[in-house]
Amino acid sequence: MGEWSYGRLQIHMNKAFDIGVESLSGGGRAENAGPEANPADHTVHSDLSDQFNSRGKMSFAGGATLADVSAVAKSFGDTANGGTFFLETFGCQMNDHDSEKVAGLLLSRGYRQVETPEAARMILYNTCSIREKAAQKVFSRLGEYRERGEGKIIGVLGCVAQQEGQDIFKRAPWVSLVCGSASYRKLPEMLAELEAGNKRVTGLDNDTDETFETEITRRDNPWRAYLTIIEGCDKACAYCVVPHTRGPERSRGSESILREVRQLAELGYSEVQLLGQTVNSYADPTARRMKFSELLLEVAQVAGIRRVRFTTSHPRDFGVDIVEAIDREPKLCDHIHLPVQSGSTKVLRAMARTYTREEYLEKIALIRSAARPISVTTDIIVGFPGETDADFAETLSMLDEAQYDGVFGFKYSPRPNTPSLALNDPIPEELKGQRLAMIQEKQRVIQMARNLAMLGQELDVFVSNKSRRENQWSGHTTSNRVISFSSQERELLGSYVRVKVTDSGTGSLMGVPVG
Ligand code: 5AD
Ligand code: SF4
Predict the structure, then answer these.
(1) Where does the pLDDT of residue 151 fall: very low under 50, low under 70, confident under 90, or very high at 90 and above?
(2) 167 CA to middle of ligand 1, Å?
(3) Interval between CA 308 and ligand 2 midpoint (Å)
(4) Percent of the chain residues past pLDDT 90, beyond the cut
(5) pLDDT, tens digit, 9 for 90 and up, residues 451-482
(6) What's the whole-number mean pLDDT along residues 149-156?
(7) So what's the pLDDT on residue 215?
(8) Would you say residue 38 has pLDDT above 70?
(9) Is 177 in the pocket of ligand 1 (CB under 6 A)?
């Protein structure tokens, strides 16, 4: 799964390397045991948000490029009568990208996006329910909106909408729209019903076999374009709400994906990131029947594209062909996010992860056998019901064996509609906290050493941030490390700069431009 955020202004640099941070929407990083692991990354995030808000790009399915919202509204007919919406997003990259598409859809129907709830006729809130804290946050936020949004249409989108359904109206009667991600294409009709005086509208089907494709996507990140290639999830991990909230797996046709990538390249994007809860389970529904690795190679062929990323990979569907594709095509980035969740086969079985510790390590060995080094990051859940000290010790030793470049650690959180709910939540919070802190500490040491080993290397950096400090720039390497450097150049944003690593920390690198 993707990176997690807190709301509208948090901008997502994908999984920039981080350790043990419960970097989640709404629940916030604070739940995490131990100190903030990677303050450097956070600076980058907040700096970027300013730029992204003013520099987002619009992309059009037809291949046209047009960046004027009012022109867009006209070209699609001003059905919304000048209606305005405010859209706040919590959650993973999939949610962020859904919001970009929802915004595009509404813009195409004549609505106008505004920066504050006060300025809006309609407040839309795209929610996350992956862990309890995130879901709890939704209702307190809805309470705030009630005060700030009197007389406005308030709508709940996303995973909490799908999960709680009509119950949202009971707990927050001032809400008038509840819509899960599989129903977004019907949003304009639902909003029209509300405008026509209907008090409550829901879109809660999740058995649709369609994917959510829009004529326009209102992209917030000017450097990295996200692109969903597979929606939903068929894996049924015992702890996870996603199969319930996002429904069954649906892959998007390869031609449609490639068309959008071409259009993104025309708009000036050089980096794309293919998204899916299990992105490598991609199964082309069209006659071409492209394999995921073939799709990666074709996306990389698109003129103007210099970097192709993808997340999240599921270990079971991770085959040698993906590593071979990366070996063949330098534009495929040197980074794979491969959540392990636990190092104990017993716990993995209880989680229904469909692989053993040994099978997972075989995948790591495949990646390590690549011609060029590929960074691997992971997600870990501590305190899953039944996890003993011995099981946890296996997770710790997994960190040593796998040598990750980043680990996202989470305390187990029981969720509605998941198989593991029946197992209760027997591991005390305190013990979960201790285990999370041990993961963080071990990974901190591993990461320090791995980053230190990069001293002296020359890396291509895609510059995406200009610091408030003068002449300071930063960006990502192909392995998705954040690296900062100083340069007197007047404008480097959006360019690729060769940087020699001169200093390293746990979460980021420093360097000097070369050549
Ligand atoms: N409790 C804790 N962590 C969870 N994740 C998913 N569901 C839960 C849960 N119920 C974590 C997994 C997943 C990441 C995005 O969130 O590690 O890979
Ligand atoms: Fe959830 Fe497992 Fe699907 Fe990932 S693979 S979205 S953890 S059910």
Answers:
(1) confident
(2) 24
(3) 23
(4) 76
(5) 999 999 999 999 999 988 889 999 999 999 99
(6) 89
(7) 81
(8) no
(9) no
**Which ligand 2 atom is at minimum distance from the Cα of 312?**
4
Ligand 2 binding pocket mutation candidate from 92, 128, 240 (most atoms within 8 A of CB)? 240
pLDDT in tens, 365-405: 999 999 999 999 999 999 999 999 999 999 999 999 999 99
Q: Is 257 exposed, middle or buried (0-12, 13-18, 19+ CB in 10 A)?
A: buried
Q: What is the DSSP string of 257-286?
A: HHHHHHHHHHHT--EEEEE-TTGGG----S
The separation between the first and the last C-alpha atoms of the chain, rounded to the nearest angstrom, is: 37
- Amino acid identity for residue 132 in this structure: E
pTM greater than 0.85: yes
Query: Mean per-residue pLDDT for 183-196?
Result: 91
Residue 115 carries which DSSP code? S
Residue 266, amino acid: E
Q: Which two tokens stand for residue 185?
A: 């294409």
Cα of 385 from ligand 2 centre, angstroms: 17
The 3-state DSSP class for residue 344 equals coil
Token pair for residue 125? 């809130």
Cα(236)–Cα(240) distance, integer angstroms: 7
**What whole-number distance in Å separates Cα of residue 403 and Cα of residue 442?**
11
Nearest-CA residue for ligand 2 atom 4 is 277
Residue 48: band (very low, low, confident or very high) from pLDDT cuts 50, 70, 90: very low
Q: Is 240 in the pocket of ligand 2 (CB under 6 A)?
A: yes
**Helices 357-368 and 389-402: crossing angle, nearest 10°?**
10
DSSP of 119-188? T-SEEEEEE--SSHHHHHHHHHHHHHHHHHTTTSEEEEEHHHHHHHTTHHHHH-TT--EEE-GGGGGGHH
Residue 253: DSSP 8-state:
P
Return all residues near 150 (Cβ < 8 A) that are at least 6 apart.
none
Angle between helices 357-368 and 320-328 (to 10 degrees): 20
How many residues are there in the chain? Answer: 515
In Å, how far are 27, 109, 152, 181, 397 from 104, measured between CA atoms? Answer: 27, 9, 21, 15, 46
Whole-angstrom distance, CA of residue 120 vs CA of residue 101 = 19
Residue 399 in contact with residue 361, Cβ under 8 Å? no
